[in-house]
Design brief:
Layout lengths: L2 E7 L1 H4 L2 H13 L3 E6 L2 H10 L6 E2 L2 E2 L3 H26 L3 E4 L10 E2 L11 E2 L7 H9 L3 E4 L2 E3 L5 E3 L2 H12 L4 E8 L17 E2 L1 H9 L7 H12 L5 E6 L3 H5 L6 E3 L2
Helix pairs in contact: 2-4, 3-4, 6-8
The chain binds adenosine-5'-diphosphate (ADP) and N-acetyl-L-glutamyl 5-phosphate.
Amino acid sequence: MKSLYVIKIGGNVIDNSENLYNFLKDFTALDGHKILIHGGGKIATQMSEQLGIEAKLIDGRRITDIETLRVVTMVYAGLINKNIVAQLQRFGTNAIGLTGADGNFIKATKRPVKTIDYGYVGDLDSQSVNAENISKLLEAGFTPAFCALTHDGDGQMLNTNADTIASAIAIALANYYDTTLIYCFEKKGVLKDINDEESLIREINPVRYDELKKEQIIHSGMLPKLDNAFAAISCGVKAVVIGKSDELGKLGNNQPFGTRLSN
Ligand SMILES: Nc1ncnc2c1ncn2[C@@H]1O[C@H](COP(=O)(O)OP(=O)(O)O)[C@@H](O)[C@H]1O
Ligand SMILES: CC(=O)N[C@@H](CCC(=O)OP(=O)(O)O)C(=O)O
């Protein structure tokens, strides 16, 4: 099987032009097929506030009413996605910027209302990602760059967490490629002490993950990220790594990079 990197970058990387530049350069230097998934929650929050729309998040998930959906569609599919695609083109990566609606690549279901109404937020299942058609793009020489938007197949765009999209794409493509999923953010990986970059935990298995949660060493945004990461490992993705966007180059040079997950 050919190899594939599925790489996700979060809002803190996108928001810093120097970090984004370095990341996209290192991304381009990696050999083989690649898919990029980007978030941008931080920028959507800033833009909402500039427009006088209050941003509401619960456990890191955005309450997406119709006004907020308009904002995130403009910010994720427009501003951020096209800027990333243009920068990748400069480095020589033939990127094609996509939402899940384009090519019907990712179909989601609007989250049912239980105690909280998340509004226009999409949930993914094992049938959501059209891996065969995405693989056609890869084989034609394109590098897909997905933003955090999907659709319901009935005309409705949906806001979907970018970590979840990355995991779902990696799982679906694992039937076609030897797939490595990488979450890039602003820290060296999962840290024992969030304020000490030297306290990197090199490897985590599910037992250690439970211990780290109990000790509250892992919290906030890292919890759903690791849940998505372990879901990928248990569904056929060959390797999952969480690391610093600035250090992605180490991966290509076979140097130790980030926190590796194991079964
Ligand atoms: N043990 C930990 N090691 C590193 N980061 C952690 C840890 N526990 C919680 N975090 C938090 O998780 C955040 C990453 O999650 P999130 O903000 O969702 O990422 P992204 O930037 O990819 O969207 C970090 O910025 C950090 O504040
Ligand atoms: C439903 C939901 O919460 N969607 C996310 C999508 C963006 C995202 O995931 O951005 P980061 O990776 O930068 O956090 C949001 O709107 O914040």
